[in-house]
Design goal:
Blueprint: H1 3-15, H2 22-40, H3 45-61, H4 75-86, H5 91-98, H6 102-105, H7 110-117, H8 119-128, H9 139-156, H10 159-173, H11 180-200, H12 204-218, H13 220-254, E1 260-265, H14 268-276, E2 312-318, H15 321-334, E3 343-344, E4 357-362, E5 368-375, H16 376-384, H17 398-420, H18 424-434, E6 439-443, E7 449-453, H19 458-465, H20 467-471, E8 473-478, E9 481-483, E10 495-499, H21 516-546, H22 558-568, H23 573-581, H24 587-594, H25 606-609, E11 613-615, E12 623-625, E13 637-642, E14 646-651, H26 655-660, E15 667-668, E16 670-672, E17 680-689, H27 694-703, E18 708-716, E19 721-730, H28 733-744, E20 749-754
Parallel strand pairs: 2-5, 11-16, 12-14
Antiparallel strand pairs: 1-2, 3-4, 4-5, 6-7, 8-9, 8-10, 13-14, 13-15, 17-19, 17-20, 18-19
Helix pairs in contact: 1-3, 2-3, 2-4, 3-5, 4-5, 4-10, 5-8, 5-10, 7-8, 8-10, 9-17, 9-18, 10-12, 11-12, 12-13, 17-18, 17-21, 18-21, 21-23, 21-24
């Protein structure tokens, strides 16, 4: 007997001393033998011995621990390893699956596992383990950080997510032992994160089981209703599908085409999604929380059950791609296709590598039946996705290698988003958006295919090309026609991004972009830009506060600067300036702390300190203008330091100035710079006669002054008058005066005024 097996036998004897009764021991032996039998079909005997060793080591590590269902905890890692063995994963993955909870739940650490089973297995186990040693402010933050760590680990080794998905699948299979609220929470997390990840990696068999289990625990009543509806339909529809299978198979044999024709039924979650329609992503619908409350189908469903065509479908599996298209022609001659329902995923595969021809045919009796045509390799890819890599030869040969490449490209995108995201929660939300692609395919002017989610705009296209292209994009051409940047794209269009090197992202883009990369890149750029602008503004404010005391910031005592940075827990003087610019710290108080003790009580020069801060109106995110009064150049203005927003400019007669005066230390004197060439929004209130065409008359009068109307709203005062609120863009008070004079000449206008 080999040394490892002798050690295994010794450990088996030790189990009797660790509160595991004989009944569970017999069951444990059977489960271990079952796992080793499955793995033995493709692994060498040496690897099977290591597998047994890991089984008994995990049993010892988890001895005395039981799951909510009452069975020993060791049964869970054994089940996880069995799921992976059925997909024929390598022995390191199976070892890590058996040990995946050891670091988190037992005294054994990563170093012990590395010494006993090798560093590769230890890295896999560590990648799956949760972050248990860090304190988080909320469950959402903890979840987000755990997912961030998991995705970073995935980038190093895809097997980590495979273990995590198998772990979640077995947990979902045994979720009935949990409390109802825990079941709903875990089911929602599965539907939002784990099932989409499985789909993104092409593991559709696993994804479908996760989705059906998630639906059964999140909406048990809906699940039972759909189950019964499918059962009632199955008799008639199954007979139709069987007739089509036999007829198609006979025709293909006549044509000399070797094919396998099988029927398949759509899983319940897929039917449910078809019925309820597409919702804003990521999927989110509040659960009732009450087990006694009737759980009805969503009123937002887009179609009744009888209109879901692909509950049952026919799948034809052939040997080559050419044969796929031959079969398509044969079946279209046999049954009439439904126009507009053909999709060629062979020429343009899905993001996860899925390839197949899809068409919908009028079956016997006019019943629509979906037909899927694919090769054997495509079928394996459709079922196990990136896991197909381990079915092929080492080195990533065949379709499995292509799937791995696609998955790694996706992970590289996730890493890029992670670097740009401000915090783990923001990263998790970006990942959720990226996990729900309903793809469209557009072309660059050079003919390259760019894949985007449905609803993507020209801005998303620009960022898909490169972050720098997105950041400097100012316009777009679709099929050689200029279009607004927020224009949604559709499959088949040729899109060209127009860039200007001096341009920068517009914050309003966040309101319509659809891709996580675009959203993360815009936020990343704006955050850095805001920080840089805040530091420049903070420098101006601090210099203003120090005028008359020192000649410049370079004369500040270095020891006092360092002491203040330590006290405020800041890493650099730039951070202090940014805090001042964002209004988080008052420049006058910071200046007082930075000055030598002898200079603190010395009054500044009256002429210098009284000089106001000059405002251009183009400072960006750190200088904003109050929407309550909408100041214009030449208005008398005053600035308020708002924490986190920088300086908010108000007219000195604004009604909010009185409220803000309670924080007198946050008010600063500001003035307009000369020759400002920027338009500012200003709100006008008009009372006009209730006549046909009056709004067109008002709009024409304003347009005659070269002024743009941004928004217009109306409300009826009585039967004869209408109150009109206009938001117009003007350069200064002179242009506003021209607009007001022009409006007062109109006989339909009885009153016009600028909103105070």
């Amino acid at each position: 007997m080999s040394a490892p097996l002798r050690e295994v036998r010794n450990e088996l004897q030790q189990l009797r001393k660790l509160a595991v009764d004989d009944d569970w021991l017999d069951d444990l032996r059977l489960r271990i033998d079952d796992l080793c039998t499955i793995a033995g079909e493709y692994l060498e005997q040496e690897h099977i011995e290591h597998l047994r060793e890991a089984c008994y080591f995990a049993a010892e590590a988890h001895a005395g621990v039981y799951r909510k269902s009452g069975e020993p905890y060791i049964f869970h890692p054994l089940a996880v390893a069995r799921i992976l063995a059925n997909v024929r994963f390598d022995h390191e993955t199976l070892l890590a699956a058996l040990l995946h909870d050891v670091i988190e739940d037992t005294p054994y650490d990563k170093e012990h596992i590395s010494a006993r089973f090798g560093p590769e297995v230890a890295e896999l186990v560590d990648g799956v383990s949760k972050l248990t040693q860090i304190h988080f402010n909320s469950k959402l933050e903890a979840q987000a950080e755990n997912f961030r760590k998991m995705f970073l680990a995935m980038a190093k080794d895809l097997r980590i997510i495979m273990i995590k998905l198998a772990d979640r699948l077995h947990n979902m299979r045994t979720l009935g032992a949990m409390r109802p609220d825990s079941r709903r929470r875990i089911a929602r997390e599965t539907l939002e994160i784990y099932a989409p990840i499985a789909g993104r990696l092409g593991m559709n068999h696993l994804r479908q089981e996760l989705e059906d289990l998630g639906l059964s625990h999140l909406y048990p009543f809906r699940f039972r209703v759909l189950q019964e509806a499918v059962r009632r339909m199955s008799g008639n529809r199954h007979e139709i599908v069987s007739q089509m299978e036999a007829r198609i198979d006979a025709r293909l044999q006549e044509e000399g085409i070797n094919a396998r024709v099988v029927g398949r039924s759509k899983h319940l979650w897929g039917i449910y999604q078809k019925m309820r329609g597409k919702l804003p992503l990521p999927f989110r619908e509040p659960a009732s929380g009450s087990p006694n409350e009737p759980d009805r189908l969503s009123p937002r469903k887009s179609k009744p059950f009888r209109d879901v065509y692909d509950v049952y479908a026919v799948r034809i599996i052939v040997d080559t791609v050419d044969t796929c298209y031959r079969v398509l022609g044969v079946t279209h001659n046999l049954y009439k296709p439904i126009m507009g329902r053909f999709k060629d995923y062979i020429a343009i595969p899905k993001a996860n590598g899925y390839q197949s021809l899809h068409t919908v045919l009028f079956g016997p009796g006019g019943v629509p039946i979906e037909l899927q045509i694919r090769t054997e390799d495509m079928h394996i890819m459709a079922e196990v996705g990136v896991a197909a890599h381990w079915r092929y030869k080492a080195g990533g040969e065949g379709e499995g290698g292509h799937a791995q490449q696609r998955a790694r490209e996706w992970l590289r995108k996730l890493l890029d988003m992670q670097r740009r995201a401000g915090n783990p929660v923001e990263f998790l939300e970006s990942v959720k958006i990226d996990l729900f692609p309903d793809e469209i395919y557009v072309f660059t002017p050079r003919g390259e295919i760019i894949e985007l989610p449905r609803g993507a705009t020209a801005v998303d296209f620009a960022y898909a090309i490169h972050s720098d292209v997105g950041n400097t994009c100012v316009g777009a051409r679709i099929d050689r026609r200029l279009v607004p940047l927020r224009t949604p794209l559709v499959t088949g269009q040729t899109v060209e991004a127009i860039i200007t090197p001096t341009a920068r992202p517009n914050p309003s883009w966040l309101n319509f972009v659809a891709t996580a990369k675009a959203r993360a890149s815009i936020r990343h750029y704006l955050k850095h830009l805001k920080r840089e602008e805040a530091a420049l503004l903070g420098k101006r404010l601090l210099e203003k506060a120090l005028v008359g005391r020192i000649n410049g910031l370079n004369e500040l005592p270095l020891d006092r600067v360092k002491a203040l940075l330590r006290e405020f827990n800041l890493s650099s003087f730039e951070e202090l300036l940014a805090d001042i610019g964002l209004g988080s710290r008052v420049a006058a108080l910071v200046a007082k702390r930075l000055l030598p003790s002898g200079d603190r009580d010395e009054p500044p020069s009256p002429d210098a300190s009284a000089q106001p801060l000059l405002i251009k109106g183009t400072e960006g995110a750190v200088v904003s203008f109050g929407k309550c009064c909408r100041p214009l150049p030449d208005d008398a203005i005053i600035g308020f330091l708002h924490a986190g927003r920088g300086i908010v400019i108000h007219r000195d007669n604004c009604k909010n100035v009185t409220n803000y005066k309670k924080n007198a230390e946050k008010w600063i004197e500001v003035e307009w710079e000369q020759n400002i060439a920027t338009d500012f929004p200003v709100e006008l209130r008009l009372e006009v006669s209730n006549k046909r065409g009056v709004l067109a008359t008002v709009a024409a009068a304003i347009s005659a002054t070269d002024t743009n109307i941004e928004t217009i709203n109306t409300s009826e005062r009585d039967g004869t008058l209408i109150t009109v609120s206009l938001l117009v863009n003007v350069g200064d008070r002179k242009q506003l005066a021209r607009v007001l004079r022009r409006l007062r000449t109109l006989p339909e206008v009885s009153k016009v005024a600028r909103r105070a």
